Amino acid sequence: MENTKTEKSQAIIPHILHKANTRGHANHGWLESYHTFSFANYQNRERVNFGVLRVLNDDSVSQGMGFGKHPHDNMEIISIPLEGDLEHQDSMGNTTVIKEGDIQIMSAGTGIFHSEKNKNKDQAVKFLQIWIYPNQKNVTPRYDQITLNLEDRYNKLQQILSPNPEDEGVWIHQDAWFHIGKFDNGFSTSYRIKKPGNGIYAFVLKGDFSIDNINVNERDGIGIWDTEKISIQATSEEAQILLMEVPMQL
C-alpha cells in the first residue's frame, strides 16, 4: 500500500502530495485521461493506491465517443460528471444519462458489463472515474445515481457518498464518505474524520486551497492520515474540492 513516503512542508502531519503535473497521462485521441494512481499503461509502484482508494482518473471524452461494453467485478465504481452529459448502459438493463450535479455508483460485485459514452455531439464530456475496493466481495451487482442540489455545496461540504443507504448521497460497500465543497476566496472550514483510522484524500477540482497549511492547486491531490480532522481554506475565488475519506487498510 502507498503512504511509504511523505514530502517535507510546513506541516508535520503524515501526508502525501500529488501535484497535477506528476500524474500519469494518456491521450487516445477520443479520450484524454490523467491518472493519479497506476492505471492501464501508467504503472508507478509508488502510486498504486491510497488505502482502499484504487483509481482516480480525470477523463475527457470527445463528442459522441466513449467506452464500449466491458466487464468489472468486486469494485465500487463512482463517476462524477464535471461537464457535459455521459450516457450509461449496463447488463442489468439500465440506460440513463448523468450530468454535472449527478453522482453515479456501480457495485460490480459478482460481475457487471457496462458502457459509458459522451451523449453530446458538440462538446467533450469531463468526469472523474473513481474505484474503491469494497469491504465485502461477490455482492449482488447494483446501480444507482442521484441528482444533487448544487447550492448545497456553496461555502459548505455537501455529502455525496457514504456507507449508509439512509444518508445523503449514494451509498457503497465500504466505510467511505465523499464530500464536495465550493468556496469563496478566504472561506475556511474543517472536516472531522468519521471513522477512526480512516484517511482523507483531497482532490482540487478548481482553484487553490490551503489544507492543514499545505498549498494545493487545481487538480492536485493530497492524502492525509493519522489525524482526527483537517482544516481547509480556499485561497482563490469559486474554489472547488472533493474530499474522499477512506479506510487505510485493504
3D architecture notes:
This protein has one domain: Jelly Rolls, CATH 2.60.120. The chain is mostly beta strands and 250 residues long. It has strands at residues 15-18, 24-27, 31-35, 53-61, 66-72, 76-83, 85-90, 95-99, 102-107, 112-118, 125-132, 142-147, 157-162, 170-171, 177-183, 188-192, 199-206, 209-211, 214-216, 221-224, 229-234, 239-246. The chain is 0% helix and 51% strand. A seven-stranded mixed beta sheet has the order 1-20-17-22-15-13-14, with no helix packed on it.
CATH first level: which class? Answer: Mainly Beta
Largest sheet: 7 strands, mixed
Major sheet: arrangement of strands: 1-20-17-22-15-13-14
What is the average of the pLDDT values?
93
CATH topology: Jelly Rolls
Order of helices and strands: EEEEEEEEEEEEEEEEEEEEEE
Spans of at least 5 consecutive residues whose pLDDT stays below 50 are 1-11
Instruction: Tell me the fraction of residues in β-strands, as a range.
Output: over 45%
**Number of helices, counting only DSSP H or I runs of 4 residues or more:** 0
Number of strands: 22
Overall number of structural domains? 1
Q: Determine the structural class based on helices, strands and strand pairing.
A: mainly beta
